[in-house]
Specification:
Layout (H helix, E strand, L loop, with lengths): L1 E4 L6 E11 L3 H6 L4 H7 L4 E4 L5 E7 L5 E2 L3 E2 L2 E11 L3 E10 L6 E13 L2 E9 L5 H30 L1
Antiparallel strand pairs: 1-2, 2-10, 3-4, 4-7, 5-6, 7-8, 8-9, 9-10
Helix pairs in contact: 2-3
Length: 166
């Protein structure tokens, strides 16, 4: 997790950034964010409607956990936003994104973006999720996704490499 200064109110904004190298073409990597079977495999979503085009819907849903976080309540729920930009094999940008937890109010708005670059025949995937307001819920949200999304992206890597190399 990094801290980036905001220019509008001079308060720091938290974001989640992560990059990893994947042995598969960039188009295959990005497609895994929009294909339901791939999302179910690596991100463990139960439902999804993800349309890879400008103004497309991006919505994924997870089962609610039995475990309750002291600040956020149960995890799971849904993540939804609007695809603003989609460049096949290169990048996508989702804006006006919200996490709708099973319990409590939504957290958002946020942006979620992915960029792929081909380096020495391998894809370098860079992910960034940003958006923040100063509250215990937002701070805890970034603490939780720092671990959860990192683990999920490692599962994405395994899934895509297995699919590509089979």
């Amino acid at each position: 997790m990094t801290t980036t200064p905001l220019t509008t109110n001079h308060e720091p904004m938290k974001d989640f950034t992560h990059s990893l190298t994947i042995d598969a073409p960039p188009a295959v990597v990005l497609d895994a964010f929009f294909n339901h079977d791939a999302l179910a495999s690596w991100w463990h979503v139960t439902r999804s409607l993800c349309v890879p085009r400008p103004l497309g819907v991006y919505a994924v849903e997870w089962d609610a956990t039995e475990w309750r976080d002291d600040v956020l309540g149960r995890l799971g729920g849904a993540f939804k936003g609007t695809v603003i930009e989609f460049k096949p094999g290169r990048e996508f940008f989702i804006a006006d994104a919200y996490w709708l937890p099973p319990d409590g109010e939504p957290i958002g708005p946020m942006a979620f973006e992915a960029t792929c670059n081909l380096v020495s025949g391998r894809t370098v995937l860079q992910i960034r999720q940003s958006g923040f307001e100063h509250s215990d819920r937002w701070t805890r949200y970034y603490d939780v996704i720092a671990t959860g999304l990192t683990v999920a992206l490692e599962e994405l890597k395994r899934h895509v490499e297995q699919q590509w190399n089979d």
